[in-house]
DNA sequence: GCATCAGTATTACGGAGAAT
DNA sequence: ATTCTCCGTAATACTGATGC
């Protein structure tokens, strides 16, 4: 969704008294979830094509030529692509491109670098999630300072304890962030993060809010050292931590939170509603 | 035998539309 | 008006495989 389109839609939504969209990314994601295609059509979504599936079958040997072929076929491609003969050229391109980022008319978070020679793709291969012949360079994320209001532990279905940060709400990269993960007790104590601190926060990959560290110059004298939880926040049973391991666990097998989290997991894994879980399976999960 | 890589599980977030 | 659910995506921990 271009910034022009995004602003146009929001102007209209203001006129109609509707809440504004927060950012183009989520507005586009929401548009794709619309069941009414006439609304989707009005939103003017757009796309560049980057990958020509049948390139080798069409006797195209490399990525650069496949983009040119897509253009011949009248598909929209990104006019900014460039061939780089080595990594130094790639780096120079990134340096040159970054200042132009805000003149593009649409938001980007980085640049994709691809191997040009298509016949190498199979040899280079894939991990479970990603091709190994392409990688994204991500621009540094926006860092914002806000106040850490509280730290509280939560317990998941396995009993693992995760610590969460409650933050003074702050706008980062187009969303209001109120909370962020602090992972585990070691993460917090290693950085000596304390409640009441001003902390640096960013969104990893422009999505996941993350506390980076506290701001040393703004530490208050009265700020007390943070203490890790000793008992489960749900059932108050004593937490266990295996020597040499990082995570604390609630080992109470009938901890209510563990059971409900377990049910949630079971349901989402099997794409069912809570109501659809049979009594037998609930018993099994309970055990 | 150690270091690194890869894969999986878990947990996490906010915004969006849909459902209640 | 509120709650539910989906979506995309990252960090961390741990385990097993692979490479040197």
From TrEMBL:
EC number, UniProt record: 6.5.1.2
Gene Ontology molecular-function annotations: DNA ligase (NAD+) activity; metal ion binding
SMART domains given in the database record: LIGANc
UniProt keyword terms in alphabetical order: DNA damage, DNA repair, DNA replication, Ligase, Magnesium, Metal-binding, NAD, Zinc
Domain of life of the organism encoding this protein: Bacteria
Known catalytic reactions: NAD(+) + (deoxyribonucleotide)n-3'-hydroxyl + 5'-phospho-(deoxyribonucleotide)m = (deoxyribonucleotide)n+m + AMP + beta-nicotinamide D-nucleotide
Domain spans labelled NAD-dependent DNA ligase N-terminal: 1-271
Keyword Phosphoprotein assigned: no
GO biological process, one term: DNA replication
Pfam families for this protein: DNA_ligase_aden (PF01653), DNA_ligase_ZBD (PF03119), OB_DNA_ligase (PF03120)
Keyword Flavoprotein: no
Cofactor needs: Mg(2+)
Family of the protein in this entry: Belongs to the NAD-dependent DNA ligase family. LigA subfamily.
Protein name in the entry: DNA ligase
Gene: ligA_3
């Amino acid at each position: 969704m271009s910034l022009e389109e995004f602003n146009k839609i929001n102007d209209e939504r203001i006129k109609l008294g509707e809440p504004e969209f927060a950012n183009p990314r989520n507005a586009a994601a929401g548009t794709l979830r619309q069941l009414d295609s006439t609304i989707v059509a009005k939103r003017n979504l757009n796309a560049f094509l980057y990958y020509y599936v049948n390139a080798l079958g069409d006797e195209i040997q490399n990525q650069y030529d496949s983009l040119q072929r897509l253009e011949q076929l009248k598909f929209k491609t990104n006019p900014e692509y460039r061939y780089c003969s080595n990594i130094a050229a790639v780096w120079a391109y990134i340096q040159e491109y970054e200042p132009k980022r805000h003149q593009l008319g649409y938001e980007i978070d980085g640049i994709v670098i691809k191997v040009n020679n298509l016949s190498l793709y199979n040899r280079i291969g894939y991990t479970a999630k990603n091709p190994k012949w392409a990688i994204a360079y991500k621009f540094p994320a926006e860092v914002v300072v806000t106040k850490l209001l509280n730290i509280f532990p939560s317990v998941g279905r396995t009993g693992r304890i995760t610590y969460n940060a409650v933050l003074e709400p702050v706008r980062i990269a187009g969303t209001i962030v109120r909370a962020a993960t602090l992972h585990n007790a070691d993460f917090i104590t290693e950085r000596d993060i304390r409640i009441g601190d001003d902390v640096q926060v960013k969104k990893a990959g422009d999505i996941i809010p993350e506390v980076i560290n506290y701001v040393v110059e703004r530490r208050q004298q009265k700020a007390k050292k943070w203490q890790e939880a000793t008992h489960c926040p749900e059932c108050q049973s004593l937490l266990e931590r295996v020597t040499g391991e990082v995570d604390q666990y609630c080992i109470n097998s009938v901890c209510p939170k563990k059971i409900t989290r377990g049910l949630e997991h079971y349901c989402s894994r099997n794409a069912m509603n809570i109501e659809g879980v049979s009594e037998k399976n609930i018993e099994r999960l309970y055990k």
